[in-house]
Design a protein that fits this description.
The complex is a heterodimer of chains A (436) and B (176).
Chain A: E1 4-10, E2 14-23, E3 26-36, H1 42-56, E4 61-66, E5 71-78, H2 86-93, E6 103-112, E7 116-124, H3 125-137, E8 141-147, H4 148-156, E9 163-169, E10 172-179, E11 182-190, H5 196-212, E12 220-224, H6 231-234, H7 252-263, H8 275-320, H9 322-350, H10 355-365, E13 371-378, E14 381-389, H11 392-401, E15 409-410, E16 415-416, E17 422-429, H12 432-435
Chain B: H1 9-28, H2 31-38, H3 42-50, H4 52-70, H5 78-96, E1 102-106, E2 112-122, H6 123-134, E3 141-149, E4 155-165
Helix pairs in contact in B: 5-6
Classes of the chains: A alpha+beta (436), B alpha+beta (176).
């Protein structure tokens, strides 16, 4: 929710500015200001407004109420049509539009059940665009345009009963019926201040028009300002002014500005587009897009350039260190080969055989009287161990206790000679693990 | 058989993939890309350079170990190593006071160099010779032994086959 809300009212005599500030749930008056035009020329008026907004640092986004000579506001019942066709149906069915040279419509859908009930406003396009050009010169960005009568009704009047209102400003009378602060029927007519009969006629017309629409006869009558005519002069039942905030001083422009702030972008309002502004907006969009593309391109190029520079620096660094890198790489490769060679040499060294140890162990194990006549070995294979021993069984038993010889076995027969010796021949394998 | 499916999305995806791969290959084939590909990655260089000291220390240590191992093996090719082995065997035989009748070189073209020594000696001398060989600080082993003794005789006939691994084989690159 916006913290600041600004309403601006414009008519032929001057301008009114009301700015509200939100403090918690409450809205407080921050600025209430009004002034009269110093010039009749639209450019000078726009410049004047621009200066005021700039001087006070007021946001250029405002809700604006204006006075327009040719105005109509009605509540119409239309057949059910799609949203996009509503404007066309209104133009086709609303006969009162024929009085306009180029009507500019605004509508608000009130009800969509069996019939389509819309509140429609029509203004003369040229008049509204004149105000828009003034706002354009002032550099303001109206969030919406409403009629002065809409703003004043919104500011002063909130009862649900139909109320006849009569707003008289410079050369202009706005008369109509308002319910809950919003006009449901409105006519605007030029007015000569010296002719109260015209006012009477207009009020009478409004009553009748409202009655034709089947509306309840208005009980209250609001006239602004109330001191222009006595009720006898305009032939009305009562002159009643609702309680407006005191700071508005009962001023029509300030009340309209206040009403514009209150209405905001709700209800019925115009939002016309000035061709120049539209062109400028398009140009701004194109420029923004171009700027985005340019920014993106520049950013990408900068990023790419930084990336390329980094890559170049890295490549240069790598190239500078390449000889050392290659040398270390070569050393590591040599290391791998040396490790393999060391491993190979260790294996070869461990494959050495120790037959003297085998012989010593035989002497320890074999019975004392055993005599060897033949000892033939190839690697761990015992081709033949031959000799004589007092008892072959003792020899076999003794050899079986030594893990080195336990795989040996007798080859062929054992001869027991007459001298009492057993002549034996052994073969087999030495235990490989033990023999090394 | 339906070669083209009704839904051509798959074909479009395949086509896009082929185009993408072709483009990528084209991109990779640029001279600059080839040049970059020849260079090692920055991370690899950084990693290796940060370990320079360690690599050099490790390399020196390994070289020292290899040199130590060099002393444990016969040097040179088969002929040179064979000669070294023969000299060593002569020295060991002299130390052990072992008489031998013949020596014969074997396996001069293989991975090992061998030498067969045979003769007659008493058993104790043969054992001393074996001990001398086995305690030598070079990788030489007795891989076959044949001893025959006549009953009542102290002198035995012996035939010993010694073998030493070759670090450099014929036609092969020298290791280390």
């Amino acid at each position: 929710m916006k913290r600041w809300k600004t309403g601006l009212s414009l008519n032929e005599l001057g301008w009114g500015l009301v700015q509200l500030r939100r403090v918690g749930d409450e809205e407080r008056f921050e600025r209430v200001q009004r002034g009269e035009w110093r010039s009749d020329e639209a450019g000078a008026r726009g410049t004047e407004l621009k200066r005021i907004f700039l001087e006070h640092g007021v946001s250029s986004s405002v809700m604006v109420s204006v006075t327009v000579n040719a105005t109509l506001l009605r509540t119409l019942d239309l057949p059910l049509v799609p949203e996009k066709d509503i404007a066309a149906v209104i133009r086709g069915s609303w006969e009162e539009l024929r009085g306009f040279t180029e009507p500019l419509l605004a509508y608000e859908v009130l009800n969509r059940s069996d019939r389509l009930q819309v509140r429609v406003g029509a203004v003369e396009r040229s008049e509204l665009m004149a105000w828009m050009e003034l706002l354009e010169i002032a550099g303001l960005e109206p969030s919406g345009i409403i009629l002065q009568a809409q703003a004043v009704c919104g500011a002063l009047f909130s009862t649900a009963d139909p109320t006849l209102f009569l707003i008289m400003s410079h050369c202009l009378v706005e008369t109509g019926i308002a319910i809950q602060g919003a006009p449901v029927f409105l006519r605007t007519i030029p007015w000569d201040k010296g002719n109260p009969e015209e006012i009477q006629q207009e009020l009478s017309f409004t009553r009748h028009a409202w009655a034709r629409q089947g509306g309840t006869p208005p009980q209250k009558i609001l006239t602004i300002p109330e001191d222009l005519f006595s009720k006898e002069q305009v032939g009305i039942d009562a002159i009643t002014t609702q309680n407006a905030p005191g700071c508005l001083e009962g001023n029509l422009l300030l009340m309209a500005a206040y009403g514009a702030v209150l209405q905001g972008n709700n209800g019925l309002f115009w939002c016309p587009v000035i061709p120049a502004a539209e062109k400028r907006k398009k140009r701004r969009t194109v420029m923004l897009a171009a700027a985005c593309v340019a920014l993106f391109t520049v950013g990408s190029l900068a990023f790419h350039r930084a990336h390329v520079k980094t890559m170049e620096a890295q490549t240069a660094w790598v190239q500078n260190n390449l000889p050392l890198y290659r040398e270390l790489e070569s050393l590591e490769a040599q290391d791998e080969r040396m490790i393999a060679e060391i491993s190979r040499r260790r294996r070869l060294w461990n494959e050495r055989r120790f037959y003297s140890d085998t012989l010593a162990r035989w002497q320890r194990v074999a019975p004392t009287e055993t005599v060897l006549t033949q000892w033939i070995m190839e690697g761990s294979k015992v081709v033949e161990i031959a000799g004589r021993t007092p008892s072959i069984s003792r020899l076999i038993e003794a050899l079986g206790k030594d893990p080195l010889f336990k795989n040996l076995s007798l080859k062929g027969a054992v001869y027991h000679n007459p001298k009492g010796w057993d002549e034996f021949r052994l073969g087999g394998f030495l235990n490989e693990e033990v023999s090394r | 058989m339906q070669w083209v499916p009704e839904n051509k999305t798959f074909l479009y995806i395949v086509l896009a993939l082929i185009l993408f791969l072709a483009g990528y290959k084209l991109y990779q084939s640029r001279p600059i890309a080839r040049e970059k590909a020849a260079l090692p990655a920055v991370g690899d260089v950084t990693n290796l350079l940060s370990r320079e000291m360690g690599i050099r220390q490790r390399h020196d240590e390994l070289r020292r170990i290899v040199r130590e191992w060099d002393a444990c093996f016969l040097r040179g090719g088969p002929r040179e190593a064979g000669l070294s082995l023969r000299k060593a065997v002569e020295a060991w035989a002299k130390d052990a006071n072992l008489n031998y009748e013949s020596t014969q070189m074997q396996g001069e073209t293989g991975e090992n160099i061998g030498l067969i020594i045979q003769g007659s000696a008493d058993y104790g001398t043969v054992r001393r010779f074996l001990q001398r060989v086995e305690s030598a600080p070079i990788a030489v082993s007795v891989v076959a032994i044949r001893i025959k003794a006549d009953e009542g005789e102290k002198i035995v006939r012996y035939e010993l086959k010694l073998e030493a691994p070759l670090l450099t084989t014929k036609g092969g690159a020298k290791n280390g």
